[in-house]
Amino acid sequence: MRILVTGATGQIGSELTLVLRERYGGDAVIAAGHRKPASAALASSGPFVSLDVANRDALARVIQEHGIETVYHLAAVLSATGEQHPQRAWDVNVNGLYNLLELARESGIRQIFYPSSIAVFGPRTPRDRTPQDTVLSPTTMYGVTKVTGELLCDYYAHRFGLDIRGLRYPGIISSETPPGGGTTDYAVEMFYLAVEGKPYTCFVREDTMLPMMFMPDCLQAALDLMEAPEAKLRYRTYNLSAMSFTAGELAAEIRKHVPGFRVEYVPDFRQAIADSWPRSIDDSAARADWGWKPRYGLSEMVAEMLAALSRRRAAGCLYPTG
Ligand code: AKB
């Protein structure tokens, strides 16, 4: 199996690439990104190619030269950056995906993983236990590109028989590569400031509740979905949930380990994005169809995050370089 991971230097890609290399061998998994890998593990465990997915010729060359059969298409501009650069968000998120689907149709690509997002929902969607089938009318460019992406994946699957599978990820919390340009980034940033013993200025209100997930669950979900028997899948892109908490509840949980940790709430333009997204997600279809079950709740996630970041701080490498 020859696998391509686009967006391999990003928050999810940098960890998913390593997990895939452990399973399928280092040389079988080609990491592609627009910046150099920040972690030594990612740089040394297998091939890396520099790639902009919006450049179809460059993408075609990588697919052909490496005989790619499976693609985890993680390259994306996230919600907050997408509002600052909507044209770039469309180019990377929609034209990049369209390039990949067209090339997949013409080449030997067997399977594609497409990460969608809770950003496909909008203010007219029910915000509590948001159903699998519901209103998709986002107010962000990122959300618009993710809905478009879901529809494109559906079209290419039905029209050309491609095996494409997707997940609507909530905010992802991880201790390795920090996220960049998302609305849910505060839930990661808070940990970095806490382990440094500094106060955090949070860009959403204390009572802002959003669905979140710890990285080990995020990776497991992608692997489980890709390995599920196709006949069991009623949907192409599944709702996915693990936990929901407010910014204030996260700070309170961190404070159990870091007494005196202070957070000031100074909402900016990202508050309106957060307010347009669900507070919690109904993922019963994923649970029923392919056995989805998250392992981490708020307290386990917070304990592991603080332990991992404290170890890195003690070793003098809290922030990745690259
Ligand atoms: C973002 O905040 O933009 C992402 C997402 C929820 O898709 N983390």
Quick recap:
This protein is an alpha/beta fold and 322 residues long. The protein contains twelve helices and twelve strands.
Provide structural commentary.
With 322 residues, the chain is an alpha/beta fold. Helix content is 42%, strand content 16%. It has twelve helices and twelve strands. The strands form three sheets. The chain has a seven-stranded parallel β-sheet, with helices on both faces. The protein has a three-stranded mixed β-sheet with strand order 7-9-11. It has a two-stranded parallel sheet with strand order 8-12. The chain is globular, with a radius of gyration of 19 Å. It starts with a strand and ends in an 8-residue tail after the last helix. The mean pLDDT is 97. 2-amino-3-ketobutyric acid (AKB) is lined by residues 78-79, 117-119, 142, 169, 171, 182-184.
